[in-house]
Amino acid sequence: MNIINIHNLAKDLNKEDFISKYLNNKEIDIEFIYESDFINAKILRDFIEIICNKLWFPHKDVSRFILIVDELNNNAIEYWTLKWFQNKLRIKTNWDSESVNINIEVEDSWNWLKHKNALEMETLRAHQLKLWYWNHESIRWRGLFMITVKSVDRLYFKDTESGGLIVWIRKNIEI
Predict the structure, then answer these.
(1) Distances in Å between the alpha carbon of 122 and those of 41, 103, 138, 142?
(2) Cα separation of 160 and 151, whole Å?
(3) 2-174 — its CATH code?
(4) H-helix or E-strand containing 51?
(5) Does the pLDDT value for residue 145 go beyond 60?
(6) Higher confidence at residue 131 or residue 173?
(7) Strand bridging mode 154-159 / 99-107
(8) pLDDT for 46 beyond 90
(9) b/e burial code for range 54-86 (CB count within 10 A of at least 16 → b)
(10) Interatomic CA distance for residues 122 and 160, integer angstroms
(11) Tens digits of residue pLDDT in 105-137
């Protein structure tokens, strides 16, 4: 896995050229480390868009992944990590002849009193699935469960050894 600290990147970095160095036969295995600050969300959205476009994902899937990653990162920043602590975004693809699995993980560092662990998140998800939101059609209301349930094949929560939370999604895309 290639590890990149966003803080160490040059402001004038050509992100497309930079990402090209990490592609290996249409596969990528990369981890971005970033300070828990919303200013980094734009940088991460840019990288997701570049990665998806370089992997020739359909346009609708590129837009969905940008939205999903943005939601995962914003949740990690807003709810689970105090400012200036570090979060991680991992992206890994696995290809076969007809499709690609893309796995995306966001790991927070848990430094907030109202932080939820994996069991609490699974309980919350089960509760939300029973509520009205499942059929909610508004394009204005966003949320982790609504976005991921309608856009990915799998959503998984895992606790880290340090008490943080990993939110992991997987999507299979036919190419």
Answers:
(1) 25, 19, 24, 18
(2) 25
(3) 3.30.565.10
(4) helix 39-54
(5) yes
(6) 173
(7) unpaired
(8) yes
(9) ebebeeebbebbbbbbbbbbebbbeebbeeebb
(10) 15
(11) 999 987 666 678 899 988 888 877 777 555 555
Length of the chain: 175
The rounded distance, in Å, linking the Cα atoms of 113 and 129 is 25
Higher local confidence (pLDDT), 147 or 43:
43
Phi, psi of 9 (to 5 degrees): -80, 145
To which H or E segment does residue 173 belong? strand 165-174
Euclidean distance between CA atoms 24 and 112, whole angstroms:
38
What does the block give as tokens for 68? Answer: 């999903």
Q: Which of 24, 33, 27, 29 is nearest to 4 (CA)?
A: 33
**Domain spans, the chain:** 2-174
Q: How far is residue 52's CA from residue 139's CA, in Å, rounded to a whole number?
A: 23
